[in-house]
């Protein structure tokens, strides 16, 4: 390997290299002979808390019932996951099974990290999951893994704040979205904002890029062209989205510097577009106040427009350098297609049960309907419905850097550093340069 892998910061590269030098290599992999089982390593971001425990449960079940092949989990924090994949691969210490954020799949395939799914697995994935989940797990028309978390975006809103402003239903169009945002915004007598009508926030990708792309998809636009070689946001749909966000900030209904995650929980934001993973966090952290939270589809520009939103996700795939790909796919097939009983005569896959246990979804709509029909949180249903019309996040080789560039320019618009036209021109120039270089 020469230099720092593309898209990785020198700090993170140095961190991962230090960990490798300190002896964080993959464990010994056995030959599979009696008494010496194959040991597969699974590297994910399920590093702590309920996520770690949720994954360890089925892994322990596998290890207790399979003597020839064992699985050992390893995890790093999400912010270091891509770096760790790339650095371990370059050092010849890549894990057998990887759980990447699907945005990275194009980069990982181009770097020779991911192995295409065998035909029988590719057929099962294509048949068993929604189109958005299959698209996220595919690159260049080839399927590379089993979708795990499937995240769609929808509109969270505070029923109490809307009701107090005389609004009886969540917005369905952009005109209603703006009207609701302005009517629910509250300030004290000194002009300080008490409640934001709509929570645009520079806090992270989910609240900057995620909201923008969800609205862009709802307007019929796309971020990257179909061939993945140029940005497509400099379009009537893209201009309409940035105009909408610019008005919301300019008229004081949004304050981008506020951490929307904390502000929404404390009743200081009336509406925000975010992904389904947030539902579990809100439920556990808000306590009794969670009764005020409801979810609706992302509003569309005009009445009668077809619904659309953003879909993101993760998947489990096999390292192209694994010495035991057959065993790795065998485990993934067991985890993602093997079924467990959840009620009288009802069964779902192990991965679907795992994800719902932590407040998330998979792309298996039938499993989700079964699980959510047994007392699940009704606020997850709009995200489940969105699996049928969501647009997968572009995962071309330069996707991570393109996303970072989009975030930088959207935030410059929100903070008054650029106009809508300047933002569109800059996004087009910078992203086009990135994705064309990456192919």
Report on this model:
By secondary structure, the chain is of the alpha+beta class. It has 18 helices and 15 strands. α1 (10-21) packs across α3 (81-90) and α9 crosses α17. It starts with 9 loop residues before the first helix and ends with a helix.
Mean pLDDT equals: 90
Distance separating the two termini: 19 Å
Low-confidence stretches: 1-28
Classify the helix fraction into a percent range.
Answer: 40-55%
Count helical runs.
18
Radius of gyration, in Å, reads: 22 Å
Strand content: 15-25%
The largest sheet, given as strand count, sense and whether it forms a barrel, is: 9 strands, mixed
Let me know the number of strands. Answer: 15
Give the overall shape.
globular
- Find the structural class using helix and strand composition: alpha+beta
Key traits:
9-stranded mixed β-sheet, single chain, two-stranded antiparallel sheet, alpha+beta, disordered N terminus, 15 strands, 18 helices, about 450 residues
Write the layout of secondary structure elements.
Blueprint: H1 10-21, E1 38-44, H2 49-65, E2 69-75, H3 81-90, E3 97-98, H4 105-110, E4 114-115, H5 119-128, H6 131-136, E5 138-139, E6 142-143, E7 146-158, H7 159-164, H8 174-184, E8 186-187, E9 193-195, H9 205-218, H10 236-250, H11 260-265, E10 271-275, H12 278-286, E11 293-296, E12 309-319, H13 325-337, E13 339-341, E14 347-349, H14 350-357, H15 365-372, H16 381-386, E15 390-392, H17 399-414, H18 420-438
Parallel strand pairs: 1-2, 1-3, 12-15
Antiparallel strand pairs: 3-12, 4-12, 5-6, 7-10, 7-11, 7-12, 8-9, 13-14
Helix pairs in contact: 1-3, 9-10, 9-17, 17-18
